[in-house]
Amino acid sequence: MVFMVLFMAFTTSQAFSGASPGQTSPDDEAVLLAFGDSLFAGFGLAEQDAFPAVLEARLRRQGYPVRVINAGVSGDTTADGLDRLEWVLAGLPTDRKTLAILELGANDALRGVNPDITRRNLFSILEIFQERGISVFLAGMLAPLNLGRDFTTRFNAIFPDLAETFDLPLYPFFLEGVVGNPTLNLGDGIHPNEQGINVITDNILPLIADFLRRHGVQPVP
After folding, report:
1. Which of 12, 111, 171, 199 has the most crowded Cβ, counting Cβ within 10 A?
2. What is the Cα–Cα distance from 24 to 112, expressed in whole angstroms?
3. What is the distance between the alpha carbons of residues 26 and 121, in angstroms, rounded to a whole number?
């Protein structure tokens, strides 16, 4: 099932990512891999309303020649992400610049996974990206307060520590401005709705654009 979801995400992105008139051709596009869980997969949303699709549309509007591939799988923990990462990377094009946004860890927190295990899995994921020469933008997560002070402190330290260790740009909390707001979330109170995705994209877009420029992806007039 996971493989089918990812196959559909890859083929759909490839089919609908042709450049607009006056822009670069698909062969000149950079690839931005959105590797994460349901917050990237777009749980409860139409495909075009998921974060990767909205981010791509906004970046293209600003002239960035980039194709955002949705490699989010609902329910994934960091262990699940680590298990499938090599398979995902094997399916990427090899003839263009590839960057990544990594967003995993929310399901670890919700399941009470030992933060040491979460840290170790994310470290291994980042090592694989590093070995492949793929620069990563890290989207962080915060633990729910009801898990206790010790768990919360240990979990919340993971993303800043890894960003420092690997010298990565960090957006500290992917759900900033959205979590706890019923008008920006689905009925489950966990997953962003269309409006919530727009808020997230508004918040993170300048940082992603800067990340792209720093790695040679410049907007095309």
Report:
1. 171
2. 46
3. 33
Task: Work out the pLDDT band at 28, boundaries 50, 70, 90.
Answer: confident
For the segment 79-107, the average pLDDT, to the nearest whole number, is 97
Residue type present at position 4: M
Q: Cα(first)–Cα(last) distance of the chain, in Å?
A: 41
Distances (CA, A) of 122 to 21, 35, 148: 40, 12, 22
With cut-offs at 50, 70 and 90, classify the pLDDT of residue 15: very low
How far does CA 38 lie from the centroid of its chain?
A: 10
Task: Go through the domains of the chain in sequence order and give each one's CATH number.
Answer: 2-10+30-214 (3.40.50.1110)
- Using DSSP's 3-state secondary structure scheme, residue 98 falls into strand
- pLDDT for the residue 221: 86
3-state helix, strand, coil in the chain (%, to 5): 50, 15, 35
Q: Residues with catalytic annotation? A: 38, 188, 191
Element spanning 11, H or E: helix 2-15
Record the tokens describing residue 215, joined without a space: 């790695």
| CA 192-217-178 angle, 5° bins | 15
